[in-house]
């Protein structure tokens, strides 16, 4: 459902929904795998003149990216999210909701995805409750041309059912890790963005 694809940054006049979809896509890419040199170069060259808390969090991420390189970020990613044996930080919703991997929350997620006609691609090794896959589903629910799927009610339902109860805990776990630098900045941006999403959904 997700892949480490290059992200295209859109201009501001292409609308808030495009910006939301792009940010979900970027989060999916960066949480799925360490950034390539090409993606890192795109981040480094990104504008940092955004306003508000989201703009400030974006600026922090870009500044951290400017002081790193792809190899350093690969090592940080592997230390935090892969490691030897159990990862130091889990990226799976089932772990935060039940304390274990591959539990009932994942089964419920798979049922909902099947009802939407979505399934994990054969090339994807991570389970569907990985944060990258969930962000990719949200990107799809915003950007898809399928009007029956891409609407705010489906976005609110999916986010509320499969992300809202645990996603901020994940962000805090990453930010609080002593060895997280780039990914602490990414978690900071993610937390602000998810909080904005929650507030917007609450007003629907």
From TrEMBL:
Domain of life: Bacteria
Keywords for the protein's UniProt record, in alphabetical order: Chaperone
rRNA processing found in the keyword field: no
InterPro entries to which the protein is assigned, alphabetical: DMSO/NO3_reduct_chaperone, TorD-like_sf, TorD/DmsD_chaperones
A Pfam family it matches: Nitrate_red_del
UniProt cross-references to PANTHER family, sorted A to Z: CHAPERONE PROTEIN YCDY, DIMETHYL SULFOXIDE REDUCTASE CHAPERONE-RELATED
Protein name: Molecular chaperone
């Amino acid at each position: 459902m997700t892949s480490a694809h290059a992200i295209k940054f859109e201009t501001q006049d292409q609308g808030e929904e495009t910006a939301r979809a792009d940010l979900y896509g970027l989060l999916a890419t960066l949480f799925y795998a360490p950034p390539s040199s090409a993606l890192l170069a795109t981040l480094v060259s990104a504008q940092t003149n955004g306003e508000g808390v989201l703009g400030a969090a974006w600026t922090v991420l870009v500044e951290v990216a400017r002081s790193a390189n792809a190899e350093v970020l690969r090592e940080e990613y592997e230390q935090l999210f892969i490691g030897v044996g159990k990862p130091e930080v889990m990226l799976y919703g089932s772990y935060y909701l039940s304390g274990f991997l591959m539990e009932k929350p994942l089964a419920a997620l798979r049922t909902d995805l099947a009802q939407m006609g979505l399934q994990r691609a054969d090339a994807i090794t991570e389970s569907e409750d990985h944060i990258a896959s969930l962000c990719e589903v949200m990107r799809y629910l915003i950007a898809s041309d399928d009007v029956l799927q891409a609407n705010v009610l489906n976005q609110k339902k999916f986010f509320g059912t499969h992300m809202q109860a645990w996603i901020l805990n994940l962000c805090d776990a990453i930010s609080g890790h002593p060895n997280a630098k780039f990914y602490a900045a990414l978690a900071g941006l993610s937390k602000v963005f998810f909080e904005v999403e929650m507030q917007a959904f609450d007003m629907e």
